[in-house]
Design brief:
GO terms for molecular function: ATP binding; ATP hydrolysis activity. Belongs to the ABC transporter superfamily. With 273 residues, this protein is of the alpha/beta class. The chain folds into two domains: 3-237, P-loop containing nucleotide triphosphate hydrolases (Rossmann fold); 238-272. It has helices at 43-50, 73-82, 90-93, 100-111, 117-130, 147-159, 177-194, 205-211, 229-234, 239-246, 253-272; strands spanning 3-14, 17-28, 32-36, 58-63, 66-67, 83-86, 165-169, 197-202, 214-219, 222-228. Helix 7 (177-194) links the parallel strand 7 (165-169) and strand 8 (197-202).
Length: 273
């Protein structure tokens, strides 16, 4: 299957610190890739380079056959419409002075300037209903909604222009656990219903497992392991991946102790080699 999105040799340095070090990732149409790692591993920097919020020092971002980092005006317009981002904190990413209608319609004003206000409103109501809200939200402002509802509004804004790719930067980390599950289920449903391709960044492997087909593990700006979800979770190759998995809580204390024992034995065996 050919790649819809291909990141090759991406490198980004801040001063003497190499935040992203020669990272390559591919996403096929309709696929969901989870990018995991601790804070400071370079996850968010990769996304910021991908969507143009940071300029990488080296590398390419090929989307639908063209390099988005060196695109002409027409290609760049297409990329910005078809690759949309959902940010980590819905309390910060939504302008508190704007109504929900204004927030969600904003991409349409940019990408479909000839659409009438009535047409934009119809599209906004349609996408709000897709994410579990109603038209009654239109005149309200973000402060009148819970964190989970705000993130639904942010997802609606990302979906309204009809994107092919959704780039999610830890979109549930600021939410309560019960609300996290609702948002992940929403994204999973949107992916199935709309055929979305998703790049999902998180530090919580339990969340990533619910949504993603493949996993890439990032440490110190480098991909240390990549593979199918079941392979990475069932038989992780890199010690850092095993450390991340060991931090995922298991409700059964006996099973949790057994997992920790096996990980310790495996790490000791590798150290002795």
């Amino acid at each position: 299957m050919s790649a819809l999105l291909d990141i090759a040799g991406l490198t980004k340095t801040f001063g003497a610190h190499k935040a992203v070090d020669d990272v390559s990732l591919t996403l096929a149409k309709g696929e969901s890739l989870g990018l995991v790692g601790e804070s400071g591993s370079g996850k968010s920097t990769i996304l910021r380079c991908l969507v143009g919020l940071e300029r990488p020092d080296a590398g390419t971002v090929t989307y639908a056959g063209f390099d988005a980092l060196r695109a002409d005006r027409s290609e760049l317009r297409r990329f910005r419409r078809e690759v949309q981002m959902v940010f980590q904190n819905p309390y910060a990413s939504l302008n508190p002075r704007m109504t929900v209608e204004e927030l969600v319609a904003e991409p349409l004003r940019v990408h479909e300037p000839k659409a009438s206000r009535a047409e934009r409103r119809d599209r906004v109501v349609e996408v709000l209903e897709r994410v579990g809200l109603t038209g009654s939200a239109l005149p309200r402002r973000p402060a009148q909604f819970s964190g989970g509802q705000r993130q639904r509004i942010a997802i609606a804004r990302a979906l309204v222009s009809g994107p092919e790719v959704l780039v999610c930067d830890e979109p549930v980390s600021a939410l309560d656990v019960s609300v996290q599950a609702q948002v992940v289920n929403l994204l999973r449903g949107m992916r199935r219903e709309l055929g979305l391709t998703i790049l999902f960044v998180a530090h919580d492997l339990a969340v990533v497992r619910q949504l993603c087909d493949r996993i890439a593990v990032l440490k110190d700006g480098r991909v240390v392991e990549e593979g199918d979800r079941d392979a990475v979770y069932g038989s992780p190759r890199h010690p850092y991946t095993r450390e991340l998995l060991a931090a995922v809580p298991i409700p059964d204390p006996a099973a949790d102790r057994e997992r920790r024992r096996k990980n310790a034995l495996r790490n000791n065996e590798e150290y002795a080699r």
